[in-house]
Amino acid sequence: MAADTEDPGLDEALAAAREDDDEVPPGMLLAQAKIAGSLFGAAAPGLGRFRVLARLGGGGMGVVYSAYDPQLDRGVALKTVHVPTTSALTALGEAKALAKLSHPNVVPVFDVGIESGHVYIVMELVRGATLRDWVVGKPLRDVLEVYRQAGLALAAAHDAGLVHRDFKPENALVGLDGRVRVVDFGLACEATAGSGKRAGTPRYMPPESEVTPAGDQYSFGLALGEAVPEPRPRWVQDVVVRATATAPGDRFASMHDLLRALARDPARIRLRRAIAAGVAVAIAAVGTGAFIIGRGAPSAAEPCSGAEREIETAWSAEAQGTQLTRIGALSAYGAEIAPELGKQLVEHRARWVANHRAACFAHHRGEQSDALLDRRMACLDRSRAGLATVAELAAAANRDALPGLPRAVRAIPDPNACADVSELLADVDPPSPGVASPVAEVRLNLERARVTNAAGLADRAVPIAEAAVAKARTLGYAPLLAEALLVEGHARMPARDIALAVERLRDAQAVAFASGLVGVGVEAWARRAWLLGTHAQPFDGREVIEPLATRAEPFVRALLANNLGNVALYAGDRATARIRFAAAFAEARGVTGPRRVELAYIRMNLAIASDDPSARDGLWRDAESEFIRLVGRDHPDTLFVAWTRATAVPMPLATFVATLADVCNRDELHPAFSQRTAECWDELAIGRELVGDRAGALAAADRTVVLGAEDHLITAEAAGYARLWRDDPEGAQAAFERNLAHLPEKPNDSWFHRFVRAKLQVGLGRSQAAAGRRLLARTTLELAVATLANIAIDQPAATVQRRLDQARAELTKLTGLR
Questions:
Q1: DSSP string, 379-422
Q2: Quick check: 662 pLDDT over 90?
C-alpha cells in the first residue's frame, strides 16, 4: 500500500482542509499529530497520553488546545483548568461528574486527569462559532432556536444535579452542523468559591452568592437579552425580565419552565390551532366517507399537504401495480414474491408520507430550524431516489433478475431514519452554498448506485458510481468524494480484477479520515481487508482501524468484525474467526433498515466457525429464518443458507438426503444460479448413493452435468460418477484424471481446494478399482483418506466427515482392513 502522502484523494482533502487555519478538521489534526510524533517521538508535548498541537483560546479559567489522542487516533479539545493546587481534586471530581452527563447539547467529556498539578479535561473538538458570534445578523427564529438548545443543555445538567455557574455566549458553541454544545460547566468555579471568592464572569453572575440552578437562569436571561435587543417581542421580554429577577424565588421554577415560556410565540400558537382545526376537519371528512387526499392545491389550513403527490413522482401506485402484476406472471418465483414486495412498498410509502408531514409540521411549529428541515428533506429525497431506482429495476426485470428485487426493496433508505436528528446533525462540514445543489444531486445518484448494487447488478451500479466520483472530484467537497469512492469500490468488489476495487476503497478510506468521516473510512478499510485477506494478499492498519471503529455506527462495527472473521476463517484460524464473528453478532443485534440483509450472514458465519454441533445447528436455523423474513423462503440467499446447513450439520443420512433434495428442487426456480444448483445436485448424488439409491444418485449426477460445465471445479465429480454408475470405469477414470489435472496441488492451497481434490481422488480410486487396478486404487484412496482426515481436524463440517467415512469404506472394501 502506498504511503498516505502519495495518495491523490488524501492530498485533495488535506489541501481543502488548509483553506482555513482557524478551523482545522480532525483529519488535519491527525496528520499534524503523526508528523509531530515522527519529529519528536516520546518527547512530543502533551498531558497524559494526549499530544498538544495548537492553542485554540483561553481565559481566566483555563486554556484550550487542539490535541491528538494516539490511543484512539482522533483529534480532541484539551482544556487545562486554572485552580489552586489544593482545589485540584475538587475540580477533578466535578469534571468526572460532567463526563457522565450525556446530552446532544452538552459537549462530551472523554477523559479527565491531573498531571504535574494541572487538571485537564479532554472534550469533543467542536468546529463552529460561539453563540455571541453566531447570532449576529440572524433572524429572531434562528436566534431563539440556538438559545433553546443551550437552555436544554442547562436543563439536562440541572436534572443531573450539576450547575454551570458560568453560562455566557462564549461558553456555547454552534457547530457547523447547526447543533449547539454548551462547554465549561463551571469546572473551576466550585474550587475557587471554596476560597471565599465568587466564581464566574462578573457580567453574567447572579446577585446571590448561593450556587443554585436559578443562577444559571439569570446568566441565560442576560445572554438572551443581549442576543435579542429591545424592542423585543412581548413573550421574549417577559422571559428575559423574569429570568433576570433579582430574587431567585421570582425566577422560573426550572429551566424547563423557562423554555416552555420561550416557546409561547403567539404566531406559532395560532398556526398550531389552525393545523389542529384542519386535522379535525379531515377526521370528520373521513368519518363521513369523504376522501380528501390528492385534491386540488393546498389551502391555508393544509400547510403540509402534498407528500402523497411527491412520492408518486418516484413510482406511482398505478405503475407499481402494473409492474408487480407483470412480475407475478414471469415465473413461479415471481408469483411468490410479488405480493410481499407490494406489501413492503405500501409500508414504505406510508412511512415516507408520515415522515415528510412530520418534518414539515415540526418546522411550521418552530420546533426545528430551516437548516434541519433541509437536512430532513434531503434525507427523504434519497429515500425517494431509492424507490425510483427499484421502479426502474422492476420495469426492466426478466425472470433471471427477479431475485434482485427483494434485496433492492430492502435497500431503499428507511424514511424513519430521517427523523433521527442526532444522525442528521453528524459533525461533518456541510457543503458551501455554491455547491450544495450539485452535491445533493450526486448523493441521489449514489443512492441509485447503492440500490442497484444491492440488487446484484454490479455491472450497472459501477458506471453510476464512476460518474458520481468524477462529479465529486470537480465539486471539491471531500466528504462527498469519500462516499462516492466507497460506493464505487463496493460495486467493483464482485469483479474478477480486484485491483481497481482495492484502489477505490483505499482512496475512500484516506479521504474519509481526512474529512472526519470515521464510519465511511472504517467501512472502506473493512471491505478492502476482506478483498485482500480472502485472496491471500496482505493488508495492514488493523491496530489503528479497530480503535477508530468504536466511534463508528453499529453496522460498520459489525461489518468490520465479520470481514476480519472471514479473513481468519480463510486462513484456517477458526478460533480467531469465532471471536470475530461473535463480536459481529453482538454489534449486529441493533442494526435495522436497508443494511440488515448484508449482516444476516453473520449468524451463518458464526455457525461455520463453531465447534459445538447443537449451537451450530441453532445458529443456522436462525440465519435461515432471518433470510426468510428479509427476502423470502425461496430466495437464493435463503436457499444458500439452507444448503450450507444441510452439508455442514450432522444429521441422519436419510434426513440429509430429503433436506438437500428439497433445497435442490427449489434452487431450480433460479436459472441464473445454475452453477450453484449444480453443486447442490452433485452433493445430493453422493448422498443418494450412500443410502443405496443408485438410480436417484445417477439422476442427480446427470442433472449436475446438465447445469454445469463437465470440467468445472464443483461439477467435475458428478461427470466422473455418471460414467462409473453406468458401468464405464475407463471413462470415469479418464474424467477424474482430467479434472484433477485442472486442479494442481499448490503449497498454500486453501482447505476447500484440498477438499475438492480429495473428493476427485476418491472417485478416481473407485474407478481404478472397478477397472481392476487395485494396487493403484489403494494408493489413490489412501492419499484421499489422509487428506480428508487432515481437513476434518480443523473443518468439522458434516460433509467433510461424510466424505471421509465414504473414502475409508471404499478403502476397507479394497483391502479388507479396518
A1: HHHHHHHHHHHHHHHHHH--GGGTTHHHHHHHHSPPGGGGG-HH
A2: yes
